[in-house]
Structure prediction request, 310 residues.
Amino acid sequence: MKAMSIKTRIVLAILAAAFYAINSPFSKVLLNYMPSTLMAGFLYIGAGIGMGVIALIRKLKKAENVEMKLTKKELPYTVAMIMLDIAAPICLLFGLKSTSAANAALLNNFEIVATAIIALIIFKEKISVRLWLGILFVTLSCALLSFEDVMSLQFSYGSLLILAACICWGFENNCTRKISSKDPRQIVLLKGIFSGSGSIIIGLIIGERIRVLWSVFAVLGVGFVAYGLSIFFYVYAQRILGAARTSAYYAIAPFIGTLLSLVIFREIPQYTYFIALGLMAIGAWLSSQDKLLFKKRRDPLHGSEKKLYK
Prediction:
């Protein structure tokens, strides 16, 4: 199989962002019909089922598969990835209950900050000055969105839960980066089966129950697109771009999600939202222009070293 170019990886990162963008607005609607923890589980189950179907179709067609399988060496990162994928969507969905979908969609960009700082401190990825500036603008935007009342400096409970979800996903992104050379279908299947089952078990233990049967199928569909296809493309993009830079391109997701939220809910946000939107746009652009992306980076699947485009 021919190694993917850097431009192809960037397109995959943007596609991953576009698919994930439907998560906040559609999940907020579906929260009227299904409790938060159960929904978090079914979102990942939907991702796993969808990817399982794709894998089965490829097998029936006898499509060539040169992807490497996960081994015991990757077990610690795989387990951490699954546990974090249980915690993150639960925090996100509980946060969605007490904040607007547009606000939540924009706050999701804090994942860039969390991923980059964790990549630097724990996994020793290099971060350029431009990316640090991008992180600063994203952080300022998130701080503004997190205040319930800017004058009295009261934090929004829902916003803080969404930021907690972003931190969980920041750790998860870096764990996924460590196994990104392996089969993306296998990674999504593991996330779907184990993260999804874990959340459903927790939901049932705390007394949550399905109220409307059709909501299960709706949530499974959202999960397949927003989590399954998104994760699948995200893993491919990470192979060359790295965790921090893939998250930078992923920054387009909140802007798509915000647009969808405004169309669906027809709510005009306060003026602070539009200030935060401007700060976030600057931060996302600076992050995506990270010059360290133009260095040589080894493709972990094909073992080929490529000079990235100018």
Q: What stands out?
A: Residues 292-310 have pLDDT under 50 and may be disordered.
